[in-house]
Write a structure and sequence with these properties.
The chain is α+β, with helices and mostly antiparallel strands. It contains 17 helices and 11 strands.
Length: about 475
């Protein structure tokens, strides 16, 4: 692309009064981290230096997709180091949401350079979604009236915080705080164990959704080939929740026991006190409803007179269950032994959006895109440190542009804002040579996590497998 066309700073945006008054015309190739907080600070919006609205968001997005979006790393992932004319990227579907909720599907791009050109030179893209790989470029789908089905697609999981409203008491709806982030950390821990140990999967990308949840992209080659029936079977295996009701099935599967082992310390050390399980009427009623009637009435009467803390009441409940008797001859599902595990799962087990995971054709918001409501970047995070991740400290779009301004003020010497390496502007290689703007901002940390936790292990595995195949 040569010199960047969009070097406008946040200062310029503050001074300008941009108005979107012209009719909408979609052009393109398709159809029209931080330290843990001491208190549970909550927020539905970001700490943006500029109040986000459509008037100033759109020019900010132009700058972001011109200077800060990590095209090289995203291409390396979505092409899977392809040596076959980058078919994995060229046949990939992208969808775009434009201002006024105009939605465009079936976009595809021959190179990452043309994708970048679309994002920075066309109508501003408010949201970017990634779909499956098709047998031909997605933009040509009308040329294949039959059998134009996905040939591969990452297995994706979507978990939203508002699905926990029946058990979280600190926030509700789109509001999120570090206390209720524990639910997301618990979900990550369970799925990490289950997907890696029970299914043998290795390449999992965890991404904060930018507002109230997390996404997981499973990039293992065998998983990308899973058909819809296989995906539905995996979802059924992982699903224990029906709303706030726990269903273990006819017997206690080993997966349940292993999940409870992961969830127990999170529930006992954090959720009980932070969510006031025994104090808040909503959660207290739910907990009592999971006990046998006689036990529920007895403990309720005793707790009404007691000043015990929530953790002490939990210990008392455990002892009451242990004393209550023997295991039912009919199995664990009807026995008192399962009650404790059901309570833990009711409060902490992952609540999956099953429709997202069950179909190869489902599109999901791209990592590193900007959430238009909060201004936060959809950043990858390290699943081994999910508890320490703080959604309220995620880097935001206005903050990034402030950092670019600050860097420019501290380094007044002219720096060539270019991504080319001496080749023609239409070369994909010129676009892949990354500008150093990312290193000037908080995006550097997000990209480092993406590379370290996901991209480098994935690339290493792909190359090792190809060497093995050549030597076979």
């Amino acid at each position: 692309f040569g010199k960047q066309k969009h070097s406008q700073s946040l200062t310029n945006i503050r001074q300008a009064e941009t108005k979107m008054t012209e009719p909408m015309q979609v052009s393109g190739e398709g159809d029209v981290q931080s330290k843990e907080m001491d208190t549970c600070e909550s927020s539905t919006v970001g700490r943006a230096a500029v109040a986000l609205n459509e008037e100033n968001l759109l020019p900010m997005l132009k700058i972001y997709y011109s200077r800060l979006f990590p095209y090289r790393q995203m291409f390396q992932w979505l092409s899977y180091c392809s040596t076959d004319d980058d078919v994995a990227f060229r046949n990939r579907e992208f969808s775009f949401t434009y201002p006024n909720d105009i939605y465009s599907r079936w976009n595809s791009f021959k190179t990452v350079a043309t994708l970048k050109e679309h994002l920075i030179d066309g109508v501003p893209v408010v949201k970017l979604d990634i779909g499956p790989v098709y047998p031909a470029p997605a933009k040509d789908h009308n040329s294949y009236p039959k059998n134009f089905d996905p040939v591969q697609r990452e297995v994706v999981f979507d978990i939203d915080m508002d699905d926990y409203d029946s058990v979280r008491t600190c926030c509700e709806g789109a509001t999120v705080c570090h206390c209720c982030w524990r639910f997301m950390a618990a979900a990550v821990a369970v799925l990490e164990r289950t997907l890696r140990e029970d299914f043998g999967l290795k390449h999992l990308l965890w991404v904060y959704s930018g507002r109230r949840g997390v996404h997981c992209w499973v990039a293992d080659e065998n998983a990308r080939q899973w058909t819809d029936p296989v995906r539905r079977s995996v979802v059924r295996y992982l699903s224990l929740m029906d709303g706030a009701t726990v269903d273990f099935g006819p017997y206690h599967h080993p997966m349940v026991k292993k999940s409870v082992a992961v969830l127990r310390p999170i529930f006992e050390e954090h959720i009980i006190e932070e969510q006031q399980v025994f104090e808040n009427p909503k959660t207290y009623k739910l907990l009592l409803s999971m006990l046998p009637a006689a036990m529920s009435e007895s403990l309720h009467e005793e707790w009404q007179k007691s000043s015990l803390s929530g953790k002490h009441k939990w210990v008392q409940l455990q002892k009451t269950i242990q004393k209550a008797g023997k295991k039912s001859k009919r199995g664990y599902d009807d026995s008192l032994d399962s009650i404790e595990d059901k309570i833990i799962c009711a409060f902490t087990y992952p609540r999956l959006d099953t429709h997202v995971s069950a179909s190869m054709g489902h599109l999901l918001k791209s990592p590193f895109c900007v959430h238009p409501k909060t201004g936060r970047i959809c950043v990858p995070f390290d699943p081994q440190h999910a508890t320490e991740f703080n959604p309220l400290r995620v880097v935001e779009l206005p903050q990034l542009l402030e950092q670019l301004d600050e860097w420019a003020e501290k380094h007044p010497s002219p720096v060539a804002e270019t991504t080319d390496d001496g080749e023609d502007d239409d070369s994909s290689k010129s676009t892949l040579k990354q500008t150093n703007d990312i290193s000037k901002t908080g995006m550097a940390d997000a990209v480092e996590v993406f590379e370290r936790c996901f991209l480098k292990p994935l690339t290493k595995s792909i190359r090792a497998e190809r060497i093995k195949q050549r030597e076979a």
